[in-house]
Design goal:
The complex is a heterotrimer of chains A (540), B (202) and C (280). Chain A has 18 helices and two strands. Chain A has 540 residues and is an all-alpha fold. A two-stranded antiparallel sheet of chain A has the order 1-2. In chain A, helix 3 packs across helix 15, helix 9 packs antiparallel against helix 10 and helix 11 runs antiparallel to helix 13. Chain A starts with 5 loop residues before the first helix and ends with a helix. With 202 residues, chain B is an all-alpha fold. Chain B has one domain: Cytochrome c oxidase, subunit III, four-helix bundle (Four Helix Bundle (Hemerythrin (Met), subunit A)). Helices cover 76% and strands 0% of the residues of chain B. Chain B has six helices and no strands. The radius of gyration of chain B is 22 Å and the shape is elongated. Chain C has 280 residues and is of the alpha/beta class. Chain C folds into two domains: 92 residues, no CATH class; 156 residues, Immunoglobulin-like (Sandwich), CATH 2.60.40.420. In chain C, helix 1 runs antiparallel to helix 2 and helix 2 packs antiparallel against helix 3. The chains are: A mainly alpha (540), B mainly alpha (202), C alpha/beta (280). Chains in contact: A-B, A-C. At the A-C interface, helix 3, helix 9, helix 10, helix 11 and helix 12 of A face helix 2, helix 3, strand 1, strand 8 and strand 10 of C.
Chain lengths: 540, 202, 280
């Protein structure tokens, strides 16, 4: 990036060069990278907190941090990883960077709203983390904040937590509105919905979920804060309130939140696989419909988190069936991805390794997920380490693996340089081994009697917990090659050219990094973003 | 890194916004409508909570509160009328009659203020306070959250009315602010009708 | 389709299914069962484990096979085949998960029914289910409502006389058990084998959960919501009672034991601990 000459600076309201990443920039590409870098910093913070948890669990006694601190740690770990790392990065970062390219626009529909949505995140995150450093002041009731526990733990921390989550929810809603408007209203003339790259569909579905479910969480947390501050009794049983209503409202958001984290990852994988396998995406139409099915089903399955909460039997039955059926559209996607790979010319680079590992991890998490949907099965393992293992397979093994894969894939677009492949493979190996070592044993722990969110446990479980902690250490180490890779290649990396992967999706049809107005001339009309094989002659 | 075109960020963004609006019409109303869907979901959550509380959590002895119907019914009528007056204001504006539009906006704003005043009167005459019991808390939360929306609406109406003065931002051809306020106002009215039905009649 | 492909697919599927069945039946991931519904649960677990193994191994083998077989040879810059979809194939893999899921759903519903989970505890129509008579203990309380978890476990397998009610109070950070029949209050649950136990559970402060892994049972205890949980222990021994819902700083330490005894030993314990008998 050349710095603007001094004479240009007069009428230039926005800083250029690296400074613009710290400014209220309206450029969707800058905002996307702001989301990415900000999210990654919070990932390191959340990872450090996970490190505290795994260190505490090295021994069966509560001996590393105080019990209160332990509960603060697990609360903040969950909240940061979900609201400050995965949701902003897999939606905000890649969505903002890619969607305008995919629809052939020069920016998002509402650039100012977009910048506001991003700039809500750092203050909310800093607010949340700062509460951790004041003794006993951070929330201690888990990221679920179930009352009455959240009403009886220190109030200041809980209120800060609510405030922070409300800000992040607002950011998420603004982002969702922007994506919906951009995808539906800002497409270049001639570009029909069924020509869009699949990530657009994933983001459309995700944004619908965000817009429909996040406000319900916001309303619930407002009621919860009333209970804490104004001493109303919505969720306070001693005042005639009902705690199960909180759980319903909470999960009405927080189950779709899983799809808010996972659907965009599905979309990103659907972009990466065809390019590196040199084959069209298999079954585009069924992929689109399966996204819609997941969105619909995702909204009506929340109570499967409450099978032991004393929900009536008919409700358990309904939610079991509805939840199980999510496996159908999800299964379609996985079989379609396998079919995309079948007969391709697969380049086994870092982007592809992470994407393939995503398939392995997510299938595993999906299978335990279908098992968890069965009431009798769930009654034994609910709130145990089995569930902890399951959802880390979904959100880490699923989404975070895709985020890393996407980083290797789109880094040349962001910077014009390729990430180093050797460091990339090392990063992959450490992450994959560390991840499975950390979370696979947790399934057994849960089945055999280790509840989640405990600082002390049955000494019989020591060995597997230590194994899990070693895995966590490997995962921590795995970020080093990534960090080194990003820093070194940004300065001294191999030049990528405009289209290093010979891709057909629109973002590669402009220079890398792209100009401020995205296209040097008119935006190209890409009617077949996955037309590999058939355009061989045309490109040669 | 590779060089970019000399076009500056700020000018580029303004240029492309204009270009986008030219090509796609005004999508800002669409964005607002999406936001209102989200806002509506917040109310939906509150309604669901209220209905569940009512069905599952009986009030303590002597805690069943009958609400007075007269004042809220008048308020409902006032709010519904205000929707029509706002509609009229929009029509006048599009026809180029900015003066008439301003008058109708004034009436709408006044009706909104009357509604808020009525709500205040009701609050001060209620036999229960915020923390008395579950029903009381939910009542205040619902009507209060809606009242907040009405207040915001009245502020918006005032701003829009000021903008219709000669030389203001709103003209017969460029009246996004007015249309946005109108959409919002209809939404707030619609929510009230549902709220009235659930809270007072059910 | 060439006959060799059909044979290969058939062989692979057979090997896969046999592997899955073997794993499901021979790899034991669960602690020993000690209640009448543990065996029912383990049956479901085996089925889910087998199906899961088949699906997981199948997909992983297919993936790794593709990654090796179809890897890009160095210097090869060409594209793969331009296959954009195959409707019959897509219908097949919509149908397979649908059938599997439908089977699993119906099967687990059946298991749940056998575990007594479908009994509506606050529904008076369900009162004629043998175990329900004691539910009215809490009637007239707060809401007059009793939410239930697993209700009538092992209805048939409860020959050990009448239902034994025990009142459970969960508080930060302990369980207190009270035997209304003999006025015993204890921190450790003692139950005889073969007799149906009915826990009447209440929480004092925040949500707790009563979990005995060896019984395969868990039930949240929610303040303001008296809850009944019933089970029949089948194997003598001492098993942990674990609080499974985050309830505060000492949540990890909120544990107790359930001592399952043969009826004679249990009667002994009862004799020794009944306040009247110890006082005199």
């Amino acid at each position: 990036m050349t710095l603007a000459s001094p004479s240009d600076f007069e009428d230039n309201l926005q800083p250029q060069g690296w400074l613009r990443y710290f400014s209220f920039s309206l450029d969707h590409k800058v905002i996307g990278l702001q989301y990415l870098i900000c999210g990654f910093i919070f990932y390191l913070v959340g990872g450090a907190l996970a490190g505290i948890i795994r260190t505490e669990l090295w021994s069966p006694m509560s001996d590393f941090v105080s019990r209160e601190t332990y509960n603060e740690t697990l609360t903040l770990h969950g909240t940061i990883m979900i609201f400050l790392w995965i949701v902003p990065v897999v939606n905000g970062a890649f969505g903002n960077y890619l969607i305008p390219f995919y629809v052939g626009a020069r920016d998002m529909a509402f650039p100012r709203l977009n910048a506001v949505a991003f700039w809500l995140i750092p203050p909310a995150g800093i607010l949340l983390i700062s509460s951790y450093f004041i003794a006993g002041a951070a929330a201690q009731s888990g990221w679920t904040a179930y009352p009455p526990l959240s009403l009886t733990t220190p109030a200041a921390g809980q209120v800060v937590w609510i405030l922070s989550v409300l800000l992040l929810g607002g950011s998420s809603i603004f982002g969702g509105i922007n994506f919906i408007a951009t995808i539906l209203k800002l497409r270049r003339p001639g570009l029909k919905l069924m020509m869009l790259p699949l990530y657009c569909w994933a983001m459309l579905g995700t944004s619908v979920l965000v817009v429909l479910s996040t406000p319900v969480l916001a309303g619930t947390l407002i009621l919860l804060s009333f209970d804490i501050i104004a001493h109303t009794g919505f969720f306070n049983p001693t005042m005639g309130g009902n705690v199960v209503v909180y759980q319903h409202l909470f999960w009405f958001y927080s189950h779709p939140a899983v799809y808010i984290m996972v659907l965009p990852a599905f979309g990103l994988v659907s972009e990466i696989l065809p390019i590196h396998a040199r084959k069209p995406l298999f079954g585009y139409t069924t992929m689109v419909y399966s996204i819609m099915a997941i969105v619909f089903l995702g909204l009506i399955v929340w109570a499967h988190h409450m099978f032991t909460s004393g929900t009536p039997p008919w409700m358990r039955l309904f939610f079991t069936i509805a939840t199980s059926f999510i496996a159908v559209p999800t299964g379609i996607k996985f079989f379609n991805w396998l079919a995309t790979l079948w007969g391709g010319k697969i380049a086994l680079n870092s982007a592809m390794l992470f994407s393939c590992a995503f398939i392995v991890n997510f299938v595993f998490g999906g299978i335990t997920g279908v098992a968890l949907a069965q009431v009798p099965f769930d009654i034994h393992v609910h709130d145990t380490y089995f569930v902890v293992g399951h959802f880390h397979y979904i959100v880490y093994g699923g989404t975070v693996f895709v985020i890393f894969g996407s980083l290797y894939h789109w880094y040349p677009k962001f910077t014009g340089r390729l990430l180093n492949e050797d460091l990339g493979r090392l990063h992959f190996l450490l992450t994959f081994v560390g991840f499975n070592l950390c979370f696979a044993p947790q399934h057994w722990l849960g089945l055999n009697g280790m509840p989640r969110r405990v600082a002390e446990y049955d000494p019989a479980f020591t060995t597997l917990n230590q194994l899990s902690s070693v895995g966590a250490l490997l995962m921590a180490i795995s970020t080093l090659p990534l960090l080194i890779n990003v820093v070194v290649t940004a300065i001294n990396g191999k030049k990528a050219g405009d289209n290093p992967w010979n891709a057909l999706t629109p973002e590669w049809l402009t220079s890398s990094p792209p100009p401020v107005e995205n296209w040097h001339g008119e935006a190209p009309l890409v009617t077949e973003p996955y037309g590999y094989g058939q355009h061989l002659e045309a490109k040669a | 890194m590779t060089s970019t075109t000399p076009l500056q960020d700020s000018t580029a963004i303004e240029a492309r916004q204009e270009q986008a609006e030219e090509a796609h019409g005004d999508f800002r109303l669409f964005g607002l409508a999406t936001f209102l869907v989200a806002d509506g979901m917040t109310f939906a959550g509150f309604f669901a909570a209220y209905l569940t509380f009512k069905a599952v959590n009986p009030l303590p002895e002597g805690g069943i509160y009958e609400l007075e119907l007269l004042l809220p019914t008048i308020n409902t009528v006032v709010l519904i009328i205000s929707s029509f007056t706002f509609h009229r204001a929009g029509k006048e504006c599009r026809a180029g009659q900015l003066g008439a539009s301003r008058l109708w906006l004034g009436i709408t704003g006044a009706l909104g203020a009357i509604f808020l005043a009525g709500q205040m009167v009701e609050y001060f005459n209620l036999p229960f306070g915020l923390t008395d019991n579950l029903f009381a808390s939910t009542f205040y939360a619902l009507t209060g959250f809606h009242g907040l929306h009405v207040t915001l609406g009245v502020i918006c109406i005032t701003i829009v009315a000021l903008q219709t003065r000669p030389g203001g931002r709103i003209s017969a051809t460029d009246h996004f602010g007015l249309e946005a306020a109108e959409l919002y106002w209809h939404f707030v009215d619609g929510i009230w009708v549902v709220l009235y039905g659930i809270l007072y009649l059910l | 389709m060439p006959i060799r492909t059909v044979l290969a697919v058939f062989t692979a599927t057979t090997v896969l299914v046999i592997t899955g069945l073997w794993v499901g039946n021979n790899v034991n991931l669960l602690p020993p069962g000690a209640s009448s519904n543990a065996s029912t649960y383990d049956e479901l677990f085996k089925v889910l484990f087998s199906i899961g193994t088949v699906l997981f191994l199948g997909i992983v083998v297919l993936l790794i096979y593709s990654m090796i077989r179809f890897r890009r040879r160095s210097g090869d810059m060409s594209d793969g085949l331009a296959i954009e979809g195959n409707l019959p194939l897509e219908i097949v893999w919509t149908a397979i998960p649908a059938v599997v899921v439908l089977f699993v759903g119906l099967y687990s519903y059946d298991i749940y029914e056998r575990m007594g989970g479908m009994a509506t505890l606050n529904d008076h129509m369900a009162m004629d289910h043998g175990a329900m008579q004691q539910v009215s203990v809490k009637e007239g309380d707060t809401a007059g409502r009793v939410w239930g978890g697993i209700g009538v476990s092992g209805m048939e397998a409860a020959p050990g006389g009448p239902v034994l009610p025990v009142e459970v109070t969960a508080m930060q950070f302990a369980f207190i058990f009270h035997y209304p029949g003999s006025d015993i209050t204890t921190g450790e649950l003692h139950v005889p084998t073969g007799q149906q136990i009915e826990l009447h559970m209440e929480a004092r402060d925040v949500i707790h959960a009563f979990w005995v892994p060896q019984f395969r049972l868990k039930q949240d205890i929610i303040p303001g919501q008296p809850t009944v949980l019933s089970f029949t222990a089948t194997r003598a021994g001492t098993y942990p009672i674990i609080c499974a819902e985050l309830c505060g700083p000492y949540h990890g330490g909120m544990r107790s034991n359930v001592v399952v005894q043969e009826p004679e030993a249990y009667d002994n314990w009862l004799q020794q601990n009944t306040p009247n008998s110890t006082n005199t």
